[in-house]
């Protein structure tokens, strides 16, 4: 395992910049907020809130995809980055295809994702568009020759989203439980985006713990060769059970990809939600939130009190939580109109948020 450890001086330059005008931008934070952000300079020390990045194998993102690190200054001065304004300040989420057999639970799951996104991008509005079946997108589809599961084509979905994008949208993201592919020569893709147009589509299908096993329920039993345009093959097609782990992974993917819509590139400074990931094990190692450098980027784009944002995230994790990490089901105490939120997998993040708030609130006293 390799640890990417930057010096405090390097991290200070990446966060604040040596430019006078950007130092003025940084000076607008409260003393408490600066103290929190500068916790990143202690990366690698015992008890640090912001650990360094670790590379576990050559297949990890940083090893496999060398990129130029993006500090705050290069982000801020990027002429192509997109920023919400008074007329484009809403994030829209479009669900595509089934998200489960139980209608009420499906609706609840998507609401959980919307509410999490609302807290994460605190200060922006997040709205759900009416769910659409695969057939409404008019997309091409296939059966993967290796994993024998259904896949839908990302380029067609992006064209569909471009036509659905409301005028007040900062961005529109399509989410689906069906596996994706970008073109015939590719095996699969987790998602695809057009950052300049503010839209993307992402799949949670491979976040099922059993996806890569032969017992995966989404594998078609027969060697079907569905006819293009015959979307009946998607009727009753398998969707993963809604578990705490699936909810956690879905929240990570959605917020990471929307983060790119603001012009934030893959983080190479500290352990961060904006790190790239090549595989599920690497994605699971990522934290749920921004490092100080990427937090500074989203803050200058949206504008919020850091403590208020953390409180909103903590409230989401603590409201309506369940006591089990297994699949969510209706019961006598939780009828089909209300399901407990499975947030057990968020426990580490809850503890982290409380530590951050301790720093912010002690300074305010």
TrEMBL record:
SUPFAM superfamilies: Metalloproteases ('zincins'), catalytic domain. GO terms for biological process: proteolysis. The keyword Heme does not apply. CDD domains: Peptidase_M54. Pfam families: Peptidase_M54. InterPro entries: Archaemetzincin, MetalloPept_cat_dom_sf, Pept_M54_archaemetzincn. Its cofactor is Zn(2+). GO terms for molecular function: metal ion binding; metallopeptidase activity. It comes from the Eukaryota. Keywords: Hydrolase, Metal-binding, Metalloprotease, Protease, Zinc. The keyword Hydrolase applies. Probable zinc metalloprotease. PANTHER family: ARCHAEMETZINCIN-2, ARCHAEMETZINCIN-2-RELATED. Belongs to the peptidase M54 family. This is Archaemetzincin-2. It comes from Stegastes partitus. The lineage of its organism: Eukaryota, Metazoa, Chordata, Craniata, Vertebrata. The gene is AMZ2.
